[in-house]
Amino acid sequence: MFVVLKSFVPLVPQCYGADLVIEIPGNQGLDDSFYRLDYYPPIGNPAANATIASRDVGDEIQFSNGLPGTRYNFWLYYTNSTHKDWLTWTVSITTAPDPPANLTVIPRSGKNVIINWSPPLQGNYSSFKLKILGLSDNFATNQTVAIEDNQFQYMVRDLTPGATYQVQAYTLYDGKESVAYTSRNFTTKRYRHKDLLDIKILRGNSNALPLS
């Protein structure tokens, strides 16, 4: 018997809980056999240490609602008429982290903006990544910036005044990048023409002596 683990990306991107599929090729589905799935941390579905009849498994066990950005340890045991709690498979994996929260963009001038964000609402993180895409120039602008874990602000410079951009923020943890990203569209300030100077016309003194 061998077991294969594969990641499952949920169809609804707002659901950031980790989903995995544990494939069990060749499962015979015998009436007197069952599997016991245990894992740590014990947060997910089915519940940790759950027992599942072999006939109900088919070829896979689906694990869902795990914590994002978390290192999990899994153990799968098999029991039948001749084996009891036989450890058939074990693995340690890191789930993908959630994207950053509270992403905001503050235009500072025609060329510079400040981007702020917060860590993910749950799970771990080690660093972040920002993508700056130009919407006004058909994505000719395409910058990727790596951000250290203790920084939650970044200034983007040398943008085009009055242009529209999109920033995409990703989280990284233990070599995994968030499947989803947080994004905001923003427009830089336009340059204004310099205000016309008020020209004060000095009126001559009516009592002044005329020139000869």
What features would you describe in this structure?
The protein is mainly β and 212 residues long. The chain folds into 2 domains: 92 residues, Immunoglobulin-like (Sandwich); 87 residues, Immunoglobulin-like. The chain is built from 1 helix and 15 strands, in the order ββββαβββββββββββ. Strands 10, 11, 13, 14 and 15 form a 5-stranded antiparallel beta sheet that branches. It has a 4-stranded antiparallel beta sheet with strand order 4-3-6-7. The protein has a 3-stranded antiparallel beta sheet with strand order 1-2-5, with no helix packed on it. β13 and β14 form a beta hairpin. The radius of gyration is 30 Å and the shape is elongated. The chain starts with a strand and ends in a 25-residue tail after the last strand.
What's the SSE blueprint?
Layout (H helix, E strand, L loop, with lengths): L3 E5 L9 E6 L10 E7 L9 E4 H4 L2 E7 L4 E9 L6 E9 L6 E7 L5 E6 L8 E8 L7 E7 L4 E4 L7 E10 L2 E2 L4 E6 L25
Antiparallel strand pairs: 1-2, 2-5, 3-4, 3-6, 6-7, 8-9, 9-12, 10-11, 10-13, 13-14, 13-15
**Low-pLDDT ranges:** 1-16, 194-206, 208-212
Broad shape:
elongated
The name of the CATH superfamily of the largest domain reads Immunoglobulins
Instruction: Report mean pLDDT, rounded to a whole number.
Output: 82
| Major beta sheet summary | 5 strands, antiparallel
Please provide the ordered H/E string of secondary-structure elements.
Answer: EEEEHEEEEEEEEEEE
User: Percent helix among the residues?
Assistant: under 10%
How large is the count of helical segments?
1
Number of strands: 15
What number of domains?
2
Q: How far is the N terminus from the C terminus? A: 119 Å
- Classify the secondary structure makeup into a structural class: mainly beta
